[in-house]
């Protein structure tokens, strides 16, 4: 068991435990040979003794060492040694990032502003672009593997289950690699992960960062993983601009051919949204619409030009939202908007917009039908056959009247009477026309905006 002050390979002195995971621990350490601070990832002894896990660990070292990008934590060294108890220990020496995992940031803030979230997504996409161009698929993109510095710089870490496209598999048949909350549908059913799978996982990260909750939750990993395959995510909060929602919905499409193919294409789409444009369709879909199972038709609305400068993720301008997914599975809730300089102006809700020209035309047609029907009834039963144009127009308010006896019928012809339109006080008597009934006037429909 390792503790503070322990030496690894007579070179790295452990100083502080940073994190503990299922496969091992990450320590802040001092490289006594070069006198610099580093991060040392130590594989647990039970895994260090397993040739398969050691092979995977070596693969991570070799794979990540090939990638040279400011958004990927660098690899300095790899080795296998023996701990004080005589057990085998495999270790990986990495760049020490002064920051914290994105999941810690989300636990503290609840959600990121639109500007912060898009900045994080574009940076991560650019880093994945380098990996994908080298033929490396991360296979485990999640907030815990995205480190954020106080200045807002993003670094991807933990390529522990990454796989080079031309490498031989190190997993057993039927083994699914990835984290259930962020796994791509094709990974969940046991298919090979591709660069598009990393993009899907990053889209789920973006959903959580911008909405304040994960799209899928459940009692177990299998339940959650199958929701990625079968279910449509809940709509994102309405306070997000339409082009931002459309970006995420394209990215988390079920069909890999209908989402962005790699980190570079995704980062370009994010850049377009940050510039105030709609996200472009994936190259595989051409210039047409993107009909994915997870894509909804967005209402027309203004796009928002977002700042391109890198925002700090925890400063005075940051609004701390209530945490919706601090631990475990998040309960689906709608996160309301808060006035802040971090959020871009949001478009009005659809139900608060005025009637469209088509809706106004239909409303006018309905009113016209009512007026026409009333006019016909008036002409048949209550109209004056010889109105006096000099007679004053009476008020539209109906005054009480005294029933009078019916006059003798002037003809034996019985005219069918249509069903009554309104109920009168004396259905058996009618008053002979003594006054001119005012023709119906035009009606104006007023639309109020809340």
TrEMBL record:
It catalyses: L-seryl-[protein] + ATP = O-phospho-L-seryl-[protein] + ADP + H(+); L-threonyl-[protein] + ATP = O-phospho-L-threonyl-[protein] + ADP + H(+). GO terms for molecular function: ATP binding; protein serine/threonine kinase activity. Residues 402-421 have a biased composition (Pro residues). CDD domains: STKc_PknB_like. Residues 12-271 form the Protein kinase domain. Residues 331-354, 389-450 are annotated as: Disordered. Residues 331-340, 422-450 have a biased composition (Low complexity). Its EC number is 2.7.11.1. InterPro entries: Kinase-like_dom_sf, Prot_kinase_dom, Ser/Thr_kinase_AS. One of its GO terms (biological process) is negative regulation of fatty acid biosynthetic process. SMART domains: S_TKc. Keywords: ATP-binding, Kinase, Membrane, Nucleotide-binding, Serine/threonine-protein kinase, Transferase, Transmembrane, Transmembrane helix. The chain crosses the membrane at residues 361-381. It holds the Pfam family Pkinase. It comes from the Bacteria. PANTHER family: MITOGEN-ACTIVATED PROTEIN KINASE KINASE KINASE 20-RELATED (PTHR43289), SERINE_THREONINE-PROTEIN KINASE NEKL-3 (PTHR43289:SF6). This is non-specific serine/threonine protein kinase. It comes from Nocardia cyriacigeorgica. The lineage of its organism: Bacteria, Bacillati, Actinomycetota, Actinomycetes, Mycobacteriales.
């Amino acid at each position: 068991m390792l503790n503070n002050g322990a030496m690894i390979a007579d070179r790295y002195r452990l100083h502080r435990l940073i994190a503990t995971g299922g496969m091992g621990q990450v320590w802040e350490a001092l490289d006594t040979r070069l006198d610099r601070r580093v991060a040392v990832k130590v594989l647990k002894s039970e895994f260090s003794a397993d040739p398969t896990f050691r092979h995977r660990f070596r693969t991570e070292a070799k794979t990540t060492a090939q990638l040279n990008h400011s958004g990927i934590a660098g690899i300095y060294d790899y080795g296998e040694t023996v701990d004080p108890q005589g057990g085998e220990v495999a270790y990986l020496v990495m760049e020490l990032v002064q920051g914290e995992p994105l999941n810690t940031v989300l636990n503290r803030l609840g959600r990121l502003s639109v500007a912060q979230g898009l900045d994080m997504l574009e940076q991560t996409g650019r880093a994945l672009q380098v990996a994908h161009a080298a033929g490396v698929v991360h296979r485990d993109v999640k907030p815990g593997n995205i480190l954020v510095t106080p200045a807002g710089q993003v670094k991807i870490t933990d390529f522990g289950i990454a796989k080079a496209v031309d490498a031989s598999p190190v997993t057993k048949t039927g083994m699914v690699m990835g984290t259930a909350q962020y796994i791509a549908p094709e990974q969940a059913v046991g298919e090979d992960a591709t660069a598009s799978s990393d993009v899907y996982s990053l889209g789920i990260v973006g959903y959580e960062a911008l909405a304040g909750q994960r799209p899928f939750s459940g009692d177990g990993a299998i339940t959650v993983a199958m929701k990625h395959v079968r279910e449509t995510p809940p709509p994102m909060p309405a306070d997000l601009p339409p082009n931002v929602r459309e970006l995420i919905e394209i990215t988390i499409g079920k069909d890999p051919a209908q989402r962005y193919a790699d980190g570079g294409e995704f980062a370009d789409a994010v850049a377009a949204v940050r510039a105030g444009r709609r996200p472009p369709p994936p190259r595989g879909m051409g210039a047409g619409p993107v009909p994915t199972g997870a894509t909804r038709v967005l209402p027309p609305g203004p796009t928002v030009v977002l700042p391109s400068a890198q925002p700090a993720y925890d400063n005075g301008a940051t609004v701390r939202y209530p945490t919706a997914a601090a631990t475990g599975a998040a309960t689906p809730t709608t996160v309301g908007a808060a006035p802040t300089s971090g959020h871009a102006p949001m478009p009005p809700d659809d139900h608060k917009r005025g009637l469209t020209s088509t809706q106004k035309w239909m409303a006018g047609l309905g009113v016209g039908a009512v007026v026409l029907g009333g006019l016909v009834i008036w002409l048949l039963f209550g109209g004056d056959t010889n109105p006096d144009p000099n007679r004053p127009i009476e008020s539209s308010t109906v005054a009480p009247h005294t029933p009078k006896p019916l006059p003798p019928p002037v003809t034996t012809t019985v005219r069918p009477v249509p069903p009554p339109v309104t109920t009168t006080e004396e259905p058996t008597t009618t008053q002979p026309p003594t006054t001119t009934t005012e023709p119906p006037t035009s009606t104006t429909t007023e639309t109020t905006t809340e």
